[in-house]
Design goal:
About 25% of the residues lie in helices and about 10% in strands. It is built from five helices and four strands. The strands form two sheets. A two-stranded antiparallel ribbon has the order 1-2. α4 (about 90-100) crosses α5 (about 105-110). Bound molecules: 2-acetamido-2-deoxy-beta-D-glucopyranose (2 copies).
């Protein structure tokens, strides 16, 4: 009797935990003053998509990071830690080819990218490990980072005339600014661009 109920408890607990609680974080990071989402992603080899999915409390513009806040960088078993930071001129085909696969695979690893790859932006961090598992998109909502953030520069401005955000000041032909520089610079919040649409 006792042995049997003990077994039941052992079996039931992990199952319950799986159903009721968030997945286990494989890696965590404590937010520092001045951090932006894509800066954290670039420094820690976390895709923009994965950071957004693993931290649903971060708002769509990544404007609500709190210094000292603990972020989940990836779930156990679904943690892609081989990443590429998008540069001006990158295309999905180029990136995929560089890492030895095709754009379809890149899309599966980074489900926020649209089929035409015209929402790729400078400073975005993409998973480039074709052996990685990534978390599924959140049910019932739009994909994280499905659109180019208002402050970000499209990776391919020439092929994405309709996707150019209205409020971006610098011409796409100028050098891409470092992710920490502000595109419009009216206040501190502008130091938090390049994040994701949850
Ligand atoms: C991120 O990946 C690069 C390239 O593989 C590696 O050199 C670097 O140590 C990694 N950084 C972290 C924080 O894992
Ligand atoms: C991309 O690569 C995957 C995996 O190798 C393959 O199944 C798929 O057919 C390829 N897609 C295209 C469009 O080539």
């Amino acid at each position: 009797m006792f042995a049997r109920s003990a077994v039941v408890a052992f079996v039931a607990l992990p199952l319950l935990a799986q159903i009721s609680f968030a997945k286990t974080c494989a890696r965590t990071y404590t937010v520092q003053d001045g951090d932006i989402c894509d800066g954290i992603s670039a420094a820690h080899n976390v895709s923009t998509y994965q950071l957004a999915v693993a931290n649903p409390s971060i708002d769509s513009a990544c404007n609500n990071l709190q210094s000292g806040q603990s972020l989940c960088l990836g779930y156990e078993g679904e943690d892609c830690s081989t990443t590429h930071v998008v540069k001006l001129g990158d295309t999905c085909d180029d990136i995929a080819q560089t890492y030895g696969f095709n754009a379809t695979v890149l899309n599966n690893l980074n489900p926020q990218l649209d089929a035409q790859c015209d929402n790729l932006y400078v400073g975005e961090v993409v998973c480039v490990s074709n052996t990685a598992s990534v978390p599924a998109p959140p049910a019932g909502s739009s994909l994280p980072a499905a659109t180019i953030p208002a402050t970000a520069i499209p990776a391919n401005p020439s092929v994405t005339p309709t996707a150019v955000p209205t409020s971006v000041a610098p011409a796409p032909t100028s050098a891409a600014p470092a992710p920490s520089s502000s595109a419009s610079g009216d206040d501190d919040d502008d130091d938090l661009p390049f994040c994701d649409e949850l």
